[in-house]
Design brief:
The protein is built from seven helices and nine strands; from the N terminus they run βαβββαββαβαβααβα. By secondary structure, it is α/β, with parallel strands linked by helices. The strands form two sheets. It has a five-stranded parallel sheet, sandwiched between helices. The chain starts with 5 loop residues before the first strand and ends with a helix. The relative contact order is 0.22. Bound molecules: adenosine-5'-diphosphate and guanosine-5'-monophosphate (5GP). Adenosine-5'-diphosphate binds near residues 16, 136 and 168.
Length: about 190
């Protein structure tokens, strides 16, 4: 059995990554979404087991100490982690796995999987646009928005460090470009 592909999508919070990924999943059915574990409070509309597995900090630490995560990171004051068993089993059974992690997670994926990890950075048109999108989304408190914007500035410095880059200015153009990149990885 041919090993599955690893596709990792990274972007500063508010760029439009979730919106792009949702459309991608509807159109490319061979992509298997990796549901991360997090200690972040659930947002309205988010579904446990689908968007994330929402767990307590105590459970996260216990799973982390049991080495259940292939990678984990503290992002915007919350813990996030990717389940190792899901990744190992998926790749061995030829599934193409799709991940949404932060830049620390990307560095871990590169360290573990090297060239096998295809990392796509989604770039926002600018910090001001990012702020507008975060406010428009209306899911975060003011201090959370400020923290995410602050982190975005350092994440943006990493935009040229990965395998592919897609600018999300006009949504439709960005989606077309992203789909092209994903298809090229799946066909490689
Ligand atoms: P992320 O997952 O990167 O944090 P979201 O997908 O939640 O970001 O998008 C943040 C907000 O920006 C949402 O309200 C979304 O509808 C909007 N958005 C996404 N892409 C665009 C775009 N190209 N132009 C304008 N608004 C966008
Ligand atoms: P959000 O709280 O907006 O859903 O996600 C915040 C950040 O955490 C995003 O940058 C997202 O990519 C990242 N993230 C989500 N799941 C994981 C994960 O399993 N590992 C890592 N390292 N980051 C993650």
């Amino acid at each position: 059995m041919k090993r599955g592909k690893i596709l990792v999508i990274v972007a500063p919070s508010g760029t439009g990554k979730s919106t792009l990924i949702e459309k991608l999943q509807k159109e490319i059915h061979s992509l298997e979404w990796s549901t991360s574990y997090t200690t972040r409070p659930r947002r309205q509309g988010e579904v446990h087991g689908q968007d994330y597995f929402f767990i307590t900090e105590k459970e996260f630490i216990s799973r982390r100490d049991n080495k259940e995560f292939v990678e984990w990171a503290k992002v915007h004051s919350n813990y996030y982690g990717t389940l190792k068993a899901f990744v190992d089993e998926g790749l061995e059974t030829g599934k193409h796995l799709l991940f949404d992690v932060d830049v620390q997670g990307c560095d871990s994926f590169k360290k573990i999987y090297g060239k096998e990890a295809n990392i796509i950075f989604i770039e926002p048109p600018g910090i001001e646009v990012l702020e507008t999108r975060l406010r428009k989304r209306g899911t975060d408190r003011e201090e959370v928005i400020q923290e995410r914007l602050n982190n975005a500035k350092s994440e943006l410095k990493r935009k040229d460090d990965f395998d592919f880059k897609v600018l999300n200015d006009d949504f439709s153009n960005a989606y077309t470009h992203l789909k092209q990149v994903v298809n090229s990885i799946l066909e490689s």
